[in-house]
Amino acid sequence: MTRIDQVVAWEALDSRGRPTVACRVTVSGGSSGRAVVPSGASTGSYEAVELRDGGHRYGGKGVRRAVEQVNTVLADAVRGLDTAEPDAVDLLLEELDGSSRYARLGGNAVLAVSVAAARAGATAAGMSLARWLHGPGALPLPMPMINVISGGAHAGRAIDVQDLLVIPLGAAGFTEALEWCARVREEARRLALAAGHGAAVLVADEGGLGVPLGGNAEALDLLVRAIESAGFTPGTDVAVAIDVAANQLWTGDGYELGSEGRTLATAELVDEIAGWVARHPVVSVEDPLHEDDWDGWAAGTRRLAGVQVIGDDLFATDPSRLAEGVRRGAANAVLVKVNQNGTLRGARGVLDDAQRAGWATVVSARSGDTEDDWLADLAVGWRAGQIKVGSVHRSERCAKWNRLLELEATEDTTFTNPWREAAV
């Protein structure tokens, strides 16, 4: 009753109004699973390839070719497979393409089938996707990393770094954690408006505030004042995380901080970030350097000892790149974006490899996301410990937070706090 009977895909829209692939998998017993896949703006060179149509329609970003691949090649291949054995579905998907990073069939097409099949399997088993992935025992709700101020590719480069986020270290549960972060975001908006930054009412791609400020340090100052104004102790109750997204700053000759009129060498950028950490309650830094600077990453991780250093574009949720990072000591945490990899099995393998190495793991959405909420179940079912999906504004962001609130209310859960349970 759990064998795949039908696979149907269609073109949907993501949060930027760009096409993406949606898919429904129905099994022989009548249960089904639906998935709509996300798409990134700040993308690395080593991610799974999205299959786009080109031409004039949607500025070349249509996905009719990817949809056709799902409805023909992929549907024919997976029909009859048992969703009760999810690895069997994903293994076939991984082998079917035959090219590097799904360049032939499209990572967006493959992932849609992978997620929809898993959801169909969970539905047929009469349980949530989180429970189906986790098994017995309390489900561990992840610590949220919530976007407050945006720049880079997410906010028209209002500041250079891509995101400034908050982590509610002192929260006792997920509901409290979410409410604390919402209070900080609202205070940041209020303070920015009071200071004459009228653009503070503008919302960036991931729901953060697109505030034009005098530079990155000024944005950090604003965020710390917002934490204090919300009634919290910076660094104890609520800490700061920075997503530098250094690929977007790299010119080939250095890192350009356009909002400050400066270009920095690798060592200078690491010094700059270390200064931010020294002066502000920063506990996590993502992508401080570009994706090919292995030596710089290793040196930067040593320099930022005691800070969670997350690799996103550096690893692209790829097992071989993660293994190289572990060998070199480049980073101590990995961002897991399933569409960078292409299948649930592949992405979970990267997460498991990182945790076996003693690294922290963060499951992440993309800037072009949808109202679909399956990512929240993955973060819980995979025991990721942390989740990063954007701010507490925009419905495609809140869909994931609302799903976690639902799991907290309806399942046996615990709340994960990596900063309390183990040293980073």
UniProtKB/TrEMBL annotation:
HAMAP family: Enolase (MF_00318). SUPFAM superfamilies: Enolase C-terminal domain-like (SSF51604), Enolase N-terminal domain-like (SSF54826). GO terms for biological process: glycolytic process. Pathway: Carbohydrate degradation; glycolysis; pyruvate from D-glyceraldehyde 3-phosphate: step 4/5. This is Enolase. InterPro entries: Enolase, Enolase-like_C_sf, Enolase-like_N, Enolase_C, Enolase_N. The gene is eno. Pfam families: Enolase_C (PF00113), Enolase_N (PF03952). It comes from Jiangella anatolica. Its main location: cytoplasm. Belongs to the enolase family. Its cofactor is Mg(2+). Keywords: Cytoplasm, Glycolysis, Lyase, Magnesium, Metal-binding, Pyruvate, Secreted. It catalyses: (2R)-2-phosphoglycerate = phosphoenolpyruvate + H2O. The lineage of its organism: Bacteria, Bacillati, Actinomycetota, Actinomycetes, Jiangellales. It is found in: Cytoplasm; Secreted; Cell surface. GO terms for cellular component: cell surface; extracellular region; phosphopyruvate hydratase complex. The keyword Zinc does not apply. Mg(2+) binds at residues 243, 286, 312.
